[in-house]
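2.7 Reproducibility. Because tokenized structures are sensitive to small changes in the input, we list the exact sequence used for Response regulator transcription factor, including any N-terminal residues retained from the expression construct. No trimming or masking was applied before prediction.
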Amino acid sequence: MFKILLIEDDATLFNEIKERLTQWSYDVYGVSDFGRVIQEFASIQPDLVIIDIQLPKFDGFHWCRMIRSHSNVPILFLSSRDHPTDMVMSMQLGADGFIQKPFHFDVLIAKVQAILRRVYDYGTELTDIKNWNGAAVDFTKNTVSNEKGTVELTKNEMFILKLLIEKKNTIVSRTELINSLWDDERFVSDNTLTVNVNRLRKSLEKIGLGQWIETKVGQGYMAKEVTLP
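Resulting structure tokens (single pass, no recycling of outputs):
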């Protein structure tokens, strides 16, 4: 059973969210002191954090930074503010999702399920090392190695590479990549995907593999795989 830490100072909303999540068999915890969020986080050790941006004492961004200094646990932001910069900031801090208030509870549940499925399936099913064009792709360590060296990828870069390798020699659309990474394309710009793919290709170029990630203009991307002798 997954444990969820819900950091929300609106008692009514907190209870409503907790009730809905509990119906789906999640264990939901709150915080008793909004000045000691990191201590309560450490005590609970949740599988997912849902955090409001506007909180007493310190905002959600502050606590996200603190949590990220200790853990890579998935974080989902809630916000009642209509500022595009909030969404950008949440992504820059490594959040896994962003939901604008007011929201439908079915949307929240779907988002929570998608994040948990993506993060924890990603970490459990990919225990083997994949051989791709003569390189060892280690999904557990986020590294790609061959005789020219080893490069370490970010979580997003590795996730993109995984999706492309799974459908090697086939075009994967930009929409599919965006939905797989962030579950809902409204929460990420098209340019963000371009930046991530370019970073992935640049990292792979260090060990001579950048050429195997091809851009198909107007369609998407493809990881080519050749049969090596």
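Confidence is low (pLDDT under 50) at residues 122-127.
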